[in-house]
Amino acid sequence: MTVALSIVVDGIAYGMILFMISIGLSVTMGLMRIVNLAHGGFALLGGACAHVLTNSYGIPFIPALLVSVMAVVVLALPLERLVYRHIYRFSELEQVLATIGIVFIMIASVNLFLGSTLLPIRMPPVVSSPVDLGFKVLPLHRIIVILAGLAVVTALYLLVERTRFGIYLRASVDNQATAASLGIDTPKVYLAAFALGAALAAFGGILGAELLPIEAYYPLRYMVLFLIVVAVGGMGSIIGSFVAALSLGILDTAGRYLLPDIGTIFFFLAITAVLALRPNGLLVKSS
Amino acid sequence: MKRLCASLLVGSIALAAFCSTAVAETIKVGVIATFSGPNAIWGKQFQEAIQVYVAQHGKEVAGNTVEFVYKDVGGPNPDASKAAAQELLIREGVKYLAGFDFTPNALAVAPLITQAKVPAVIFNSATSAINKQSEFFVRTSFTLWQVTVPAAHWAASNGAKKIVTAVSDYNPGVDAENAFVSAFEEKGGTVVEKIRMPLQTTDFAPFLQRIKSSGADTVFAFLPAGPATFAFTKAYNENGLKQAGINFIGTGETDESTLDALGDQAIGLTTAQHYSAVHDSELNKAFRAKHAEMFPKSTLNPASVGAYDGVHLIYKLIEAAGTDGSEAIEAAKGLSWESPRGPVSIDPASRHVIQNVYIRRVERDGSRLVNREFDVIESVPDLGFSR
């Protein structure tokens, strides 16, 4: 019983981190239909910025988090206007090549200025203090991430499903020409959505750094993880990504608790099975 | 005419041979390491240590000028390593090879150095079996068995009764597990559980939960330095293992290149290793001071001392044997000197360095974290060579 509870708690905590770092990709890749492999790059830049602010300038964590997310947005805006705008029209393979090129530039820049070692983000010590739940001890940080993940999924769901911006976004993605002829400023919608994706990447990267530490090769190291969550969740489905991240987190954790030696194989076999049964993702109906 | 040509040829060959032994020349040393990509830290540490040694001792050895030629192989890549060695030996005409961060890179050059009779001084690769692959390998770093067995013996004689091993599931990890388990059981300890963790994992909470409920008093961990160690030590603290009184013992997890990134959570971690940047000796102080002067943003780690001693060894071999590879290897056997890590010598049987293994604890020293040595196991040979 204790083991089952531990699996659920640890799995949800891990899944929530998976969700936080992948949700930005779900926005750009799922909603905007661009294969944005540079997603992890934005998380890296946000994390590197937070590292410099907290470690070199001694700025407290919360302001550093906000400044870093803003900095990534400020960087993403001209990038969208100058580079990504052209990438939207590319074929999928070309998008892959172009965005992976952007990743390499981001990695090399971070490597040049900060080196290839770990870039820890200093948090208040209380964040890493263990909290006793009775049947198991959980660091406070995980609880914060769980709450932040719930807040993000709610806000994002409301944004896409219930606001005018969400309607514009879905319309622009479905049929750009028709949306534009109805008076929707599609370039602006794309710009805003792209900035949102980058901001979420940076936010997730910084909050998830306790588990997936930031270093120059972060975007390549965890790329498969981001892509799995989005693929299993179903392109463009925010709730799908959420469910996928949580189930993958619980599944992976269960594998590690019960079958540590073959945990990884177990994880990938399960993903293969899911994608074989539901090629468009967990919650997306086949069209 | 033909005869004249032949005798001229013979004469010039004889002259060339004469020149190469008696007249001063430039002796090239080829350094094969990783200078780009995620593991570029290895090449950087090697190169810095080489430059510090040269700055302290000059580049003249017995009248010859020593020149280092660097070749990047971009990570664990045996094919690139082999190609780099070929190029260095044939085109650059190097008389010594050096470097080698990853085991596969060292193994790949074994046939080449045997054929060319060129000594290769290994600055890092820590698998015992490498030195069996060629008579021309000499190693100035350490092997897994060399540091893991002392770690197990030390733990056993310092109160550890029941132990869990938690290693990353890859060759060095499995090696370390075998070494630790056999040495610990030899001393009468009990191994409660052996856990192998997937290499890519960064969420260690499940494993630490297992360790906690296993009833062990100590955990032996072996993970690659970097993200895995970072996440493991974090989880070790956050899951309350420290409070539960479960001790940590490791080997290279608290490498100086990533130690500061681990942060205060690393304080108190106990490891067994052959070199700490704050080893207390005059020689090490001089090494550290010169290094800090030349590379103020960098820090010394075991890779640095491997390279520093490697260059020292190459200088000694050039002094003794010039460019004669076979003679150089003979000269290396039994050679002993004072290193920044303490007294060392080359074991004639394994051509591997015999050295002290120190038990260290992570402490805060001003703004930095350091591995403070507090116990020592003296003159340890490569315990894995004869296995």
TrEMBL record, chain A:
Gene Ontology annotations for the cellular component aspect, listed alphabetically = plasma membrane
UniProt main location, coarse: membrane
Keyword RNA-binding assigned:
no
Entries under InterPro entries matching the protein: ABC_transp_permease, BCAA_transport_permease
What's the protein's topology in the membrane? Multi-pass membrane protein
- UniProt KW keywords: Amino-acid transport, Cell membrane, Membrane, Transmembrane, Transmembrane helix, Transport
Looking up PANTHER family in the UniProt record yields: ABC TRANSPORTER ATP-BINDING PROTEIN, BRANCHED-CHAIN AMINO ACID TRANSPORT SYSTEM PERMEASE PROTEIN LIVH
Family that this chain belongs to: Belongs to the binding-protein-dependent transport system permease family. LivHM subfamily.
Its recorded name reads Branched-chain amino acid ABC transporter permease
TrEMBL record, chain B:
Q: A Pfam family for this UniProt protein?
A: Peripla_BP_6
Which InterPro entries does the UniProt record give? BCAA_transport, Leu-bd, Leu_Ile_Val-bd, Peripla_BP_I
Belongs to which family? Belongs to the leucine-binding protein family.
GO annotation terms (biological process): amino acid transport
The signal sequence is: 1-24
UniProt keyword list: Amino-acid transport, Signal, Transport
Keyword Transport: yes or no? yes
Q: Which residues form the Leucine-binding protein domain?
A: 26-366
Does Ribosomal protein appear among the keywords? no
Q: What is the lineage of its organism?
A: Bacteria, Pseudomonadati, Pseudomonadota, Alphaproteobacteria, Hyphomicrobiales
Classification via Gene3D superfamilies: 3.40.50.2300
Q: Under which name does UniProt file this protein?
A: ABC transporter substrate-binding protein
